[in-house]
Amino acid sequence: MSGEFRRDMFRGLNNPIYRGSGYEDKDDTVKQSWSSGLSQFLNMLRIPRRQTIITVLNTLLLFIFLYHLPNISTPSFISIGSRGSSAAPRQMFISDPAELTLSPQQRQARLLEKARDVAIASPNFPAKIWQTWKTISLPNDDDYKLTSSWQRLNPSHDYRLLTDSTAEQYVIENFNATDPYIVHLYRSLTQRILAADMLRYLVMYRSGGLYTDLDTECKLPIDRWLDDSLVHLPGVQPSDINVVIGMELDVLNRTKWSDDWVKDCGFSQRIQFLQWTVWARPGHEILRRMITSLQDTVRTDASLTSTGNVQSVRYTGNQILDRTGPWRWTRVIQRYVDEIEGRTVSIEEFGAIRGARRFGDVLFLSGSRWSPGLEHSGSDDAESFLAHHFHGSWKGDDKN
Fold first, then answer.
1. Dihedral over Cα of 222, 227, 231, 233: its sign
2. How many CB atoms lie within 10 A of CB 195?
3. Based on the number of CB atoms within 10 Å of its own CB, is 212 exposed (0-12), middle (13-18) or buried (19 or more)?
4. pLDDT computed for residue 133 by the predictor
5. For the segment 295-328, what is each residue's pLDDT rounded down to a tens digit?
6. What confidence category does residue 229 fall into, taking pLDDT thresholds of 50, 70 and 90?
7. Which residue of 46, 72, 154, 367 sits 20 to 30 Å from the alpha carbon of 355, by its own alpha carbon?
8. From which residue to which does any coiled coil extend (predicted)?
9. Comparing 97 with 153, which gets the higher pLDDT?
10. Biggest alpha carbon distance in the chain?
């Protein structure tokens, strides 16, 4: 290929700037008229035609370059969902200072309104069963038998086993946009029992349904639980209940059960609510408060370490129970009940439950329902909805 031909191909044979004087075009009449008009226009602007062409080409190249720029990845700690929006999404897990100024009546009214909103948003308890383990391979054959009981007796429910990888993905997808510190906290906790506790609250708050530990066994189909419980509460409808809580400890008899016994057995008080199983509609205030409370506490604990990082936080067994476990869970629930009832509910009112008892939109089950066979709480196996086999896979995490 000759240099002249390559030059013509690059410049364009029809470009009036580069055509030779002997070149003829059958459309010359039209093009000359157009070219003449363009020349007059450019002459008026005093812009040379060659400069105009170069400017247009440079602009085109710049556009192509910008269009093909690689996407810049954003760290997961940053709220991905808020980029490009006029306002950041509302943070969910934050304490509201304004609540401190509310009267008991105002707090009660606010909680009753939230309870109605939860019931409207989710008319039924979601037909979902959630369990968690490190991988899809369970520890032993007994665990497979236990998990299969949930699927076998509840075929209409969506069963999901969250592994370490899928659980982290769930937390990122559901909370990174609004509460990136929650994602950071979940990822950074060295003692993974803390993250496991945290995960159940996050899943129940976002998705709802039933969370239950891997070492539990279903004894009665979930669809029967509410109806069987409300038999003891005439006038209470399933739509009145947004969250169901199980009793782990009921030892109000101080003569039979001493304070030392309570302490030695790892309980913080004589009434304690279990959290190996949680049943809730999504968005419940108890769950939001629990997540907010543990987040604030662990953040404070981290700030007191030598590094100031969450990774440096280490807890003893009792501290784990207090930070993310049933001790804190019980306190959060009791305060919620006080506020939605508009009074201080005594600890005795949670004792000796037969069947179920209702406070606000919370249904409390007797120990026989979710923790049967416990002598100290008078639990009866015959009335159980589930059985807890106490494998205690988390124990020892305080020594890691």
1. positive
2. 21
3. buried
4. 97
5. 999 999 999 999 999 999 999 999 999 999 999 9
6. very high
7. 154
8. none
9. 153
10. 119
Q: Are 282 and 159 in contact (CB under 8 A)?
A: no
For residues 231 and 78, the model is more confident at 231
Extract the tokens encoding 91: 């943070």
CB 361 within 8 A of CB 240: yes
Query: Domain boundaries in the chain?
Result: 3-67, 99-399
Q: Which residues contact 240 (CB under 8 A, 6 or more apart)?
A: 119, 358, 361
Q: Angle at CA 334, nearest 5°, toward 300 and 222?
A: 105
Q: Which residue has the tokens 């981290």?
A: 302
Instruction: Taking the CA atoms of 227, 231, 236 and 241 in sequence, report the sign of the dihedral they define.
Output: negative
Q: Which residue is associated with the tokens 């004589």?
A: 270
Architecture of the domain spanning 99-399: Alpha-Beta Complex (3.90)
- Rounded CA gap, 223 and 154, in Å? 8
**Are 148 and 218 in contact, with CB atoms under 8 Å apart?**
no
